Amino acid sequence: MKALDKGYWKSRWKSFLIFLAVVGPGIITSNVDNDAGGIATYSMAGAHFGYGLLWSLIPIMVALVIIQEMSARMGVVTGKGLSDLIREKFGVRITVYLLTALIITNLGNVIAEFAGIASSLEIFRVSKSVSVPICAFVVWLLVVKGTYRSVEKVFLVACLFYVSYLISGFLADPDWSLVLRGFSRPAMKFTPGSLAMLIGLVGTTIAPWMQFYLQAAVVEKNINVRDYKHSRMDVILGSIVVTVVAAFIILTCAATLFKAGIRVETAKDAALALKPLAGKYCSALFAFGLLNASLFAASILPLSTAFVVCEGMGWETGVNKKFSEAPQFYGFYTLLIFFGAIVILLPGIPLFPIMYISQVINGIVLPLILVFMIILINDKKLMGNHVNRRAYNIISWTTVAILVGIAIAFLLSLLRI
Amino acid sequence: MQEHSLKMFVFFSELLGRSVVDSNGKVLGKLTDMKVKLGELFPKVVSLSIRKKWRRGLLELDWSEIEGLTGHLIRLKPDAEKKIKPFAGNENEILLREELFDKQVVDTFGAKIERVNDIHLLVVDRELRIVHVDIGMRGIFRRLGWVKVIDSLTDFFFSYQIPEKMISWKYVQPLASDPQKKDLKLNVTLRKLHELHPSDLADILEELDQASRSRVFKSLDLSTAAETLQEVEPKYQLSLILSTSEELVSDILEEMEPDEATDLLAGLPQEKKTKLIQTMEKPSREKLEELLRFEEGTAGSIMTKDYIFIQGDKTIGDASELFKRTTHPLDTISYIYVTDEENHLIGVLTLRHLVLCDKDTPLSKLMNTNLIKVKTEDDVKEVKEIFKKYKFMAIPVVDEENRLSGIVTLRDAVESTSKDF
User: Which homologous superfamily is A26-416 in?
Assistant: First the structure.
């Protein structure tokens, strides 16, 4: 009785946390998915191509749902991570080469997150030589000190920032008939620029590392096969959220930046898309959103990568272990952050293009990971009755074929110049 | 032939994929796997599995048909090719490629989960036996074909060679199992796990995937299972209980202290809880049901029924006799509680009284009547305060009418409060 009001707030806080705990791996994954690279790529897609590429979001969403569902299903049924399964089925040799490709790709993404941190804080006139080292250290500390879990919720709530694109999009009063046409009429110029943008859009929405992360998150939740339908709903919902956010960023940028003929080279340019909503504060609002997205992903990506690598190689993992118990885990984690930050500190490095290029690399590596996923999920020994249905296989193999096709077309178009 | 007379080590990765040739040198197929019979300290390979080109399905050939492992070939005895049969799995046998190579195993010496990078075999007396599993970096480099390059690099820069890291088969517990054998008795094959301490077992269970976790858990004997179950994190407790049959879970619950069993049951869905209790044997069930009546977070919910009580008109001698016969855990018998005919708590004795006082002294003359006690519905926090203040080993719990219902030990109090925060 004595501590009534303290107890009251405690129980209030507790129920709030429980509510957030119900937010599943699918939703979290989708919010981390809209990271610095995502915001940059969507902004550029809208600013440089107008409504022209909106249609691509529909097939991308279908593929995203199918692929994420496979990751979640594998996690629930096998109770093992993706790199674990790849190692057990394909042996150490393939695992090492595949993980090397993944590490390089993910390092690109980590660099992009630090580029996001640097460019967002530059709007607040904080030099990158100050912001990047401090944020790198904070991110590193969050995990090593095990406080990440409690901060995660703050990041998640701050993701409401994307709502500002929704509002700004409406306030910009776009020509809705053009928007509709952008969605319904697939049009594509086969220039290196638009092919790269298409690959970037795929790569940022369906990032290879997300599949590893989602499966690990599902495994950690220890979801029973019987409860799988909830997990599927969570994943589908998450995928739809990603796509809606992506569509609104592109649409808003198209209605503002593309219309005004602004090319996105820096965060300041991209921030102008929020002008209809925030007026002269648009830069600050954008910087806040970009910073949150970058920090969120920057604290998950190196951790997830280190985890995936160590799991596949059979090294000790876990943030509750001492450094001497899990040297490879902490080593990888620290090196990824270190290199990610150091690249951004190079003088004169173009921040926005880096965020974008990392997503194009994502898109090129994605089909490789997908091939392994599809083979694994059709393994009866692993999945039992939960192997892919025929229709699923057709869609997923088609996705792989299309992705490889676009990647080849892109490389060819580069050579022609 | 001559290589069989001497001892020779060979890695499984070096054998995999070798061509199998008959006595005339004709290639029959490639080695894809080896079957090993478990049970011996260093189990021996009993058969090879071979894949022929352009043919589906695995073929099996007995180890006794092997002539030798010369060069990069596996040479068979004359007429061995006629003894090739379709592959068949057996109880107590494991396939090295399928169930051990690249899979997770438990190192029962280090109490850790490790991944097998290679398998170290020994050719001795015409037999091939597993001696070690390789868990080190060197094994990974060997399989990648990088050993020479890496060795010359590390030697050049640091005058150092990456050492082999192996575990003796004595301490290796394989975990992966062929799903086709799922229903066979697994207790035999998982037997090495029993050497582990329950808290180590709990750590290992938490790291395993769901299927292996419940398989390993079911293979434990009741008392180990009970102790292990208490050690694992709550979310895994739930999944273990849900994936194990109700009969087995209720047997495990009977094995536990009643207050610990109630702690465990508290986290379960109501329906499951009732079912489990109904499945339990009567004496344990009654104790449990009584404890479950109390609301969570009260002294009643964490108290234990294991205590010694005796009526006030008895003597020290009687109490000693009672003490000798008890099987309760040590921390519950630091005090002996004295009651009247209607079970009202009237006093307490310590062990020291039993040892030092004259056998014929009536208890009512010696007992301490200035009692510190709590009521069943008192908050656990208050109980904790009392422990802090008085530093007792245990506190008696009474109902509204001062009738003795149970005791809370220091351990119970610490465990219950640590869970709340």
Answer: Amino acid/polyamine transporter I (1.20.1740.10)
